[in-house]
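Contributing: when you submit paired examples, paste them exactly as shown. First protein:
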Amino acid sequence: MKTKAFILLFVIYLAFIALGLPDAIIGAAWSLMRSDLRVSLGALSLVSLLTYLMSLLATLNAPRLLRILQTKKVTVLSILFTGMALLLMSQVNHFYQLLFLAMPLGIGAGAIDVSLNHYMAKHYKASHMNYLHSFYGVGVTLGPAIIAYTLTDQSWRLGFMIIGGILLVIAMMILSSFKLWNNEDPTDRQNDHAPIALKAMLKSKGMRLSIVIFLLYVHIETLAGIWIASYFYIEKSVSYSGAALFTTTFYLALTLGRLLSGLLSHKRSAKFLVLFGSALIIIGALLLILNRFENLLIYYGIVFIIGLGCAPVYPNMMFLNNTYFTPAQLSKVISLQMAVGYIGFGLLTPFAGLIFDRFSIVIYPYWIGAISVLTFLFILRYLKQPLPTQP
């Protein structure tokens, strides 16, 4: 039984690698992609917006989907969606084709994210939640790294083909592991994902604060994931591949930070890790605002600090739902938090891109600094209030 449980946990981690692989590759490749497709810097915002809308749709409907399908089936279908989308993206010649294929990317990400986060929050410890999200970090670090490698040959299409192929292989591996998963009883699925009115959920103490935190945090993470490469390409005149490595650096720090969070969670509370991480983001943003360093390696270090700060916030906020909400609320809470979080990705981050395009991307560090301070203040308020376990 222990061996079976270990293999199953590895399979779930593998699924989160698949979730992370596509997330930052368009941002990492955008400097060359927009040249190939003959569109402006701000056109990336349209891709992000459409991906967001589809992710939001999938996220809000995930509890309904999980009442019908077991987690393992939702997982494999989601990965197949994203893998096929990336393979087709590698062949596009027009921007509208890229927009069309952004839809299955968003649908796949939204469905798998809710289902696996709910599964882990319900069945595993805080350390496992951190480790799960560190494997997301493995994927989201590996994706831009592959793109950076293929960009050295002035090719983003090959990178998309490689990543799409990896996703299809992972989907097949998960499909072959179906016998390892415990069958989820239909009655339990109905209870775990029972319909709860949105108005009732929003009245639960702490619910509104928590979704605002997810909104702002996801905005910070996607600001780094999508725009960090363009910022250094434009402001520091680094190469295409050098700019993509800044994206890789951020997600490498995110990955290592979440592994470290998993280890620290045995000795430190989830509350401490959330506060520490959000404070570290502010420090990194302030260093980026200074912008007085001549050595490019220092900037890689600053981006690493920001990624390290981001690492514990999301998984530990997700785990704290166990403490602040009832099991019957858990699926709906996670769905709402992630749906609002996608607004940070799909509306706030594209809006920031339009501002950068309209004025100058030089304001990018100030934007991150302001949002990180605001996030820290909301987290303080959220964690200090005595939240009930009943709605």
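Second protein:
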Amino acid sequence: MLNIALFGPPGAGKGTQSQMLIEKYNLAYISTGDLLRQEIAEGTELGLKVKDLIGLGGLVSDEIMVELIEKKIITSSEKKGILFDGFPRTLVQAYILDGLLLKLNTSISCMLSLEVPDEELTRRLIERGKVSGRVDDTEDIIKFRLTEYKNKTSPVIGYYEERNLYVPIKGVGPIPEILEKLCHAIELTLQKEWFNLVLSGPPGAGKGTQGNMLAKKLNLYYISTGSLLRREIKAETELGLKVKETLDRGDLVSDEIVIRLIEREMKIHSHVNGFIFKGFPRTILQSYILDGLLRRMGMGVSYVVELTAPTIELIKRLDRRGRSEKARTYDVSTELIIHRLEEYETKTAPVMELYKKQNKHVVVNAVGANEEIFANLAETVQAAMKKSR
């Protein structure tokens, strides 16, 4: 999701730019003021509570604001992200928003701040006051509001700056030029968005061949649990010796070992644009584990591709590989091959059902020439990348 926090002092033009951005990028628009007014107008229980608070001169609590924001996000699932106008306003709200978005399996993509000199802001607001008749657009009140904005927002800017999410935008000039600067910043942000692909399928479906080619084409880092384990075995590490016997039987290695290897690999290559996970997760529990590993890095599973082929074709491929120099120890007998295919059906098929329910799963036919399969696979994944961004 593309989640933008749009900042700017009174008179910076957030309202004007927001409307154009939400249309261009198909975003839900969240302005806390608008949300409050909508609840009051609809006479909801929450709206009545807010109306009483405002009538008594009180401030609406963060608890109420979060309730409103969460409700809006949940009812905007058809949108490709959210544009937050004027929220968070305080450091506490920045932490709250991070927690709320984490709960909803997403996060802030960038914080765009419209930077306009005080003199220009004052001029704009005084002009607005003449047209609209707003009583709060006088020079003294404007000065107070700008000071309030700086005092409260400065720590929030620092919060996002530390996370490399803060992007200052010069907010002076023709409206189309300012919009162009905002869009340029958003496009750069989209290029940095993580994309994490799970490449699944039964043994013999060609995951290794296709996964390596796909990683090179899309500038993603390829993580194969099988390759990681074989590397440990070849190096005769303590861990490698422990898993060799398990792999020779065609069984699954313990989750504890797999987690250790994947986490190490992800930390080493944390600078990439995302990962392709081949052969993981293979069980429902491993899908939960992968979610946990990715969340620690502020991301999640973006898409899942399941390569499929008829069982007879899979057995033929594995038998051929078992008689070649690329043979694995678990390819050497028909009994082991069938055992591994049964393992996939009983343990990994339910994982694919889980991702189907999350609308992240697609099946790609793995029968044909490698080049044809790859063309279809690459086109499918690139479409998913485009849609997710």
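If you have annotations for the second protein, write them as plain sentences, like these:
The first helix runs from residue 14 to 25.
Strands lie at 2-7, 28-31, 81-85, 110-115, 166-170, 197-200, 221-224, 275-278, 303-308, 361-365.
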